[in-house]
Each structure stands twice: as C-alpha cells, then as structure tokens.
C-alpha cells in the first residue's frame, strides 16, 4: 500500500507548482490545472497585444511560465488573435510539462477531458494532509455545522439534519449516492467534450483518448482504430499492473541506483569545491604577479618623480638667487661695495663667470626635468586580450575547422566551419577576424558570436586580406582557436547584373534559366545545319550575350563560373557603341583545327588578341585559360595556357581604362590589358558548342541558411 504523502511530486501542476485543481489532460498526455491553462493562453494573447512578455507575467502572478515557453511567443502570435472574451481563442498551447507547442484543436479548452482519477487522488492527499480540518455543511444557517456526508449527485456536503431535509424518504433524491465528506465531486458518467450529450464508450488507439460513437461515425476519429471502453480498460490496467509489478520487483536495483546517485552528488560537491579552490589559486597567482608588477611600476614612477622634483627645486632656487637682494644677485651687490681693487678682483672673477651663466640661462630657459610621465604608461592591450580569452579549456571539446571550400569572399564574406567529430559539439561559437596590415603591430580582432556553423560578415574593405579563426563554447568551457584562414576581398565593389534576354539574344543557340543568372550553349542541330552548308575553310559564329546593366565610371568587379565541360567561352567587356557590330559580326572565330604554333590542339580557337575586334575578350575552354597574344605576353605558347579557375572574375576600371581577369577564388590577377572606356561598358560573353556560364550569386544576410535548406 503506497503512502499517500509519498506521491506529492506527481500531484503538482507544472504551471502553478501547486496541487492540481480540476486538472485537464492535454493531447501530449500531461496534466495542467484548468485555471492555469486559461491563464497561460490569456497571458500569451495579452503579450501579443502589448508587444512584450513582461506584462503577461506580471498580470498572471499565479503561473510561472518558463523562458523557453515565452521564447515561442513569436511563433504563436502569427495567428493574430486577441483576447476579447472570457475564453481564450488561441488553439496553440505551450505545454509547461514537455515545453512543446500543443494544438488544442478547434474547440480549444472545451475539447479537453478532466482527469477525474487524478482529482480523486489529489483529494485523498488533501484529506491525509489536513486530517483534522473539517468540511462544513453547505446548507446550514450561520454558523454552519460540520458535514457528515457529501452527495455525489448534488455535488454538495451536508450535516445529518440538512441531509434529511434535502433528501426526504420516498423521493428520487433519497436514491442519490452519498459518500463521506469531500470536496471532490465527479460525474458518474464521462461525457464527450465534442458531443456534450453523448457519453464516451470507445477508446481511440491513435489519439489515446476516450471517444463517443459520433466521433467515430463522422468526427475527427472516423478513420482511426478504436476499441471498446471495457477492452481498453482491461488492456491498460493489465499493462499498468505489469509495469508496476516490474518496478516493485526491481526495488533493490532502484535503491542501489539511488545510493550510487547519492555518492555521485557528494562526489560532485567535493569535485566542485576542489575545482573552485584550484581556480582561486590560479587567480591568486595572477593577482600576485599583478601586485608585483604594480608595486614595481609605482616604485619606478615614485623614484623618477623624486629625482625630477629635486632637479626642478634646485633650478627654482637658482632662479630665486637672481632676484634683487637674494642669492647670487644679493651676493654680487655686496661684492660691488668692496673698495679694495685687489680684493675685488680676487672675488669678482669667479662671480662674473657665474653671473654670465645665469644670464645665458635666462636667454634660453629650459626646465631641468620633464613633467610628463609618458615613458611610464603601461601597455596592457595584449594582456587584456589574453585575459579576455581566459576560460576553462577542455580536451573533450572539438576544435572547429574553417571549411575553405564552402567559405568565400564576394560582396560579403561567408565563413563556414565544421567539427571533426560529432561528440561534445559546442553550444555557441565565436568568430574573430582582422585585416592583415603589415604596418600595425598590435592586432585588433573583431568578434562575433554565432549560434550556427556559418556566418555572413559585412563591411569589409576592398582589395584587402583578412584572417579568420573560430572557437567553440559549451557553457564555460571553450575549445582552442582553429587554424587561421586568410581570404582576400575583391579588388573593387561587386557589380550586379543579369543576362540580357533582349539585346541580340539568340534563343535558338542559347538557353537562359528563369532567373537569367545562367546561360547555356548547346551543340545541337542548329550548329550542325550551319556547318553543313560550309565545305572549305569553314567559319563558325560565336553566340554572344551581354549583361543587362552597363558601367559608365568607377571600378567594378563581377565573378562567374564556367562549366568544366565547356568547349569554348569568351568573356570580357564591350562598349555600347560597338554592341551592334558585335552581334552582326559573321567571322569571329575560325573553325577548329590543329596548328603547330597555336600551343594547343583543337578545342579552343586561336588564343589571339586582335585590337580590331569590337570588344575585349579572353578565351576559356577545355578547362584552360588562354592568355591573349600581345607584345608583353610570354613567347612560349605553353606558358600562355593556365588551368581554368573554378570561379573567374573580371575587374573593370573605367577611370584608368584597364580590365583585369582574375582567379576569383584566390583574387589573383591572371591577365590585365588596356580597354577603351569612352562609352558605357557592358559585360560580354560568347559561347560555342557545349558550354555554360553561371553568374556568381551575391551574398545576402541569410545566404548560408538558404543554401543549407536547398
């Protein structure tokens, strides 16, 4: 037989932390007082209207909503409901037991069952706790008498006299069921909250709740598997009895675990005190070192001060001697009174030298000592950074590693990192970065706290290198810093544009994606039909496409990817006054062939830079980058062929009239040449055969989250 006082923990409402009062069973099978459910829903609805959670807590002092529940206000508030009646209208309820958002359905609170069994147990607990406290009659005139019985049909308590009056013999009320004095009145028949006139007679095995026959016929349980109430009662009672018997049979094991946990509690207490003592000793050592340094610094300042004061005081006394009737001047005045020439000359010679020195010092006055103590300023910048990073280091916390393949620089920086192992992952990360500058001796790291494993960093200077590092934190424990990764920003602000699908766009040979950020050239029937008509010295025409936005001035940078399978791609810029000539040129590129002096086999046309061409382009193809043939280019053809970078970039400087072609991954210039920027300049691309170009996507604040979702 279980002692009723030993189960108090199971009878406490998780919201108000008091004994249950009319508990309701939530869909998650946790119990909450009926009043607490309403107050929590009202508190959340009030917080939506007031724009904050503090007022809701203050208006409902009886309940204690956890911070994790309050954090979900934003999600629940999207319904836009407001409190305008005695019944809360929100159907999404934050369960204080499991901290999950529970959907109460269309009926809300009215669709929940009261847990009458739990009410009965709570009432027995209350009676055991207050044994001597009597329950008074509800019908006696003041002063009321102590009740002797309670009627379950009338839901009231009576003394003997009042019970006879209200339940006379020979009437229907005489057949009412009565029990000993109680305040817990439960209905004889459990009614369905969905259909109030129907009693529950089945049990839904899917929803794990009693239902009536109307719920099964046309309600929300129509397609659910149900069983009779007697079968469910028997099955659940057998399961519960077996589980209880099993737990009782394992009582010795439970007691052993409790003893072990008691030892762990004591051990934890001792270890925490030992850790505190060790931490205190570590800080005491630091204090001792700082006190010694402080004493030495103050002693040096005091010594220097005394020496300077002594020098200045001596100088003051010397200058006071120059005043009339004082010191040196007074003494000289007395010497002038000497009438004996031999005695006067004997004394005046040395005096005259001193007077001359005093005169010179007046002409070029200079203090005997400095008043500032700039040489005694203590530089604690590095030590301050080190102390700021002072924390508990753990070998169990993995050192994060910055993923250089997923990290990139464009209009903003995207820094991604990962942990080698999956155990003991950090709760939060600290990302630090600083600009590499050889002139600066003291490095100042910019710090950002990140909850995930990636971060977008803004406001970086163009054409600069930055060092990044990251460390993880789990509570007060932190991992060592990761290896520093250096990334370089583009040489100019990023220029955003899309492919132009109107000006000269050949939709028979080229295909644009809906967002106009990718273009593809397919070596299909149109190319074959064009080549079929040409027999000797055949020429093939490139398919050109330009950007939809032009550049009139300034310095700009854009990046793109060329697919590895691309046969031939030309990239560069074209002025607005030569666009028409570009699209009407018929002999842009000679047909594929092998030439001994071309430096490569067929696959890319002659890597040839002709100033007469309407635009400035360089050739890419077959995973190669071809430096154009210019007077300054290497004479060896092999040295003009470079591996094609995974990401290419173009930097146009209209003010200087130059265009550069970059390896955008490393921000390294591969080739630069002059360009005529007299008109508005447009990004230009040319494709032939199977090829594809994808414009680099600008980095937004949620760039990494979007790509992770994809």
Distance between the termini: 59 Å
Low-pLDDT segments, ≥5 res: 51-62, 64-86, 586-612, 705-710
- Number of H/I helices: 15
The total beta strand count reads: 36
CA-based gyration radius? 45 Å
Query: How helix-rich are the residues, as a percent range?
Result: 25-40%
**How much of the sequence is in beta strands?**
15-25%
Largest sheet: 7 strands, antiparallel
Structural class: alpha+beta
Q: Which term fits the overall shape? A: flat
Question: Within the largest sheet, what's the order of strands?
Answer: 22-23-36-26-32-33-34
GO cellular component, one term: microtubule
Main location: cytoplasm
GO molecular function, one term: zinc ion binding
Keywords: Coiled coil, Cytoplasm, Cytoskeleton, Ligase, Metal-binding, Microtubule, Repeat, Transferase, Ubl conjugation pathway, Zinc, Zinc-finger
Short description:
30% of the residues lie in helices and 21% in strands. It has 710 residues and is α+β, with helices and mostly antiparallel strands. Among the domains are: 1-45 and 89-132, Zinc/RING finger domain, C3HC4 (zinc finger) (Herpes Virus-1, 2-Layer Sandwich); 231-386, no CATH class; 401-488, Immunoglobulin-like (Sandwich), CATH 2.60.40.10; 510-532 and 539-585 and 613-630 and 637-695, SPRY domain (Jelly Rolls), CATH 2.60.120.920.
Written account of the structure:
The chain is of the alpha+beta class and 710 residues long. Among the domains are: 1-45 and 89-132, Zinc/RING finger domain, C3HC4 (zinc finger) (Herpes Virus-1, 2-Layer Sandwich), CATH 3.30.40.10; 231-386, no CATH class; 401-488, Immunoglobulins (Immunoglobulin-like, Sandwich), CATH 2.60.40.10; 510-532 and 539-585 and 613-630 and 637-695, SPRY domain (Jelly Rolls), CATH 2.60.120. Strands 22-23-36-26-32-33-34 form a 7-stranded antiparallel beta sheet, with no helix packed on it. Strands 12, 16, 17, 19, 20 and 21 form a 6-stranded mixed beta sheet that branches. Helix 10 (327-336) packs antiparallel against helix 11. The longest helix has 70 residues, at 251-320. The protein starts with 22 loop residues before the first strand and ends with a helix. Mean pLDDT is 78; it is low at 51-62, 64-86, 586-612 and 705-710. Residues 50-88 are annotated as: Disordered. Residues 55-70 have a biased composition (Low complexity). InterPro entries: B30.2/SPRY (IPR001870), B30.2/SPRY_sf (IPR043136), Bbox_C (IPR003649), ConA-like_dom_sf (IPR013320), COS_domain (IPR017903), E3_ligase_FN3/SPRY (IPR050617), FN3_dom (IPR003961), FN3_sf (IPR036116). Residues 336-393 form the COS domain. Belongs to the TRIM/RBCC family.
């Amino acid at each position: 037989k279980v002692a009723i006082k030993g189960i108090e923990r199971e009878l406490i409402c998780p919201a108000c932390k008091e004994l249950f009062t009319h508990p309701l069973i939530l869909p998650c099978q946790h119990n909450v007082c009926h009043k607490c459910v309403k107050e929590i829903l009202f508190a959340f609805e009030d917080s939506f209207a007031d724009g904050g959670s503090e007022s809701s807590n203050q208006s409902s002092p009886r309940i204690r909503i956890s911070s994790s529940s309050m954090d979900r206000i934003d999600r629940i508030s999207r319904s836009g409901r407001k409190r305008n009646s005695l019944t809360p209208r929100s159907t999404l309820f934050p369960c204080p037991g499991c901290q999950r958002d529970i959907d109460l359905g269309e009926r809300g609170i009215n669709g929940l069952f009261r847990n009458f069994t739990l009410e009965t147990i709570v009432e027995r607990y209350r009676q055991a706790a207050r044994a001597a406290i009597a329950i008074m009659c509800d019908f006696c005139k003041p002063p009321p008498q102590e009740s002797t019985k309670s009627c379950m049909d009338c839901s009231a308590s009576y003394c003997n006299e009042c019970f006879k009056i209200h339940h006379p013999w020979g009437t229907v009320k005489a057949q009412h069921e009565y029990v000993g004095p109680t305040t817990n009145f439960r209905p004889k028949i459990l009614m369905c909250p969905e259909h109030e006139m129907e009693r529950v007679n089945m049990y839904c095995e899917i929803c794990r709740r009693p239902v009536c026959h109307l719920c099964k016929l046309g309600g929300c349980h129509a397609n659910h598997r149900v069983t009779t109430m007697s079968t469910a009662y028997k099955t659940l009672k057998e399961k519960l009895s077996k589980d209880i018997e099993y737990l009782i049979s394992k009582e010795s094991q439970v007691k052993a675990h409790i003893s072990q946990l008691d030892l762990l509690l004591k051990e934890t207490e001792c270890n925490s005190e030992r850790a505190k003592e060790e931490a205190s000793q570590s800080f005491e050592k630091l204090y001792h070192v700082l006190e010694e340094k402080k004493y030495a610094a103050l002693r040096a300042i005091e010594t220097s001060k005394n020496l300077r004061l002594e020098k200045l005081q001596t100088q003051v006394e010397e200058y006071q001697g120059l005043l009339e009737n004082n010191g040196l001047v007074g003494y000289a005045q007395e010497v002038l009174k000497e009438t004996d020439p031999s005695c006067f000359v004997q004394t005046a010679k040395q005096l005259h030298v001193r007077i001359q020195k005093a005169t010179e010092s007046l002409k070029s006055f200079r203090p005997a000592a400095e008043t500032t103590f700039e040489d005694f300023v203590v530089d604690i910048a590095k030590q301050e950074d080190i102390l700021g990073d002072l924390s508990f280091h753990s070998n169990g916390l993995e050192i994060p590693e910055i993923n250089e393949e997923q990290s990139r620089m464009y209009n903003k920086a995207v820094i991604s990192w990962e942990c080698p192992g999956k155990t003991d992952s950090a709760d939060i990360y600290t990302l630090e970065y600083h600009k590499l500058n050889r002139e600066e001796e003291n490095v100042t790291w910019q710090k950002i706290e990140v909850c995930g494993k990636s971060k977008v960093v803004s406001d970086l200077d163009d054409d600069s290198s930055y060092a990044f590092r990251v460390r993880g934190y789990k509570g007060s424990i932190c991992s060592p810093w990761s290896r520093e990764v250096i990334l370089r920003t583009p040489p100019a602000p990023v220029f955003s544009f899309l492919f132009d699908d109107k000006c000269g766009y050949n939709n028979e040979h080229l295909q644009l994606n809906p967002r106009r950020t990718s273009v593809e050239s397919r070596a299909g029937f149109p190319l074959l039909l064009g080549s079929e008509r040409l027999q000797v010295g055949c020429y093939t025409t490139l398919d050109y496409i330009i950007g939809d936005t032009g550049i009139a001035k300034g310095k700009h940078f854009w990046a793109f990817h060329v697919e590895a399978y691309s046969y031939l791609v030309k990239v560069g810029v074209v002025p607005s006054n030569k666009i028409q000539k570009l699209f009407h040129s018929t002999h842009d590129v000679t047909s594929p062939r092998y030439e001994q002096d071309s430096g490569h086999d067929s696959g890319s046309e002659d890597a040839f830079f002709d100033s007469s061409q309407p635009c400035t382009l360089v050739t890419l193809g077959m995973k190669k980058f071809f430096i154009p043939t210019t007077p300054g280019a290497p004479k060896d053809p092999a040295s003009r062929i470079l591996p094609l970078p995974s990401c290419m970039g173009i930097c146009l400087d209209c003010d200087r009239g130059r265009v550069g072609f970059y390896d955008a991954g490393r921000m390294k210039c591969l080739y630069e040449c002059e360009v005529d920027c007299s008109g508005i300049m447009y990004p230009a691309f040319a494709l032939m055969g199977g090829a594809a170009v994808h414009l680099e996507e600008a980095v937004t604040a949620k760039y990494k989250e979007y790509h992770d979702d994809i």
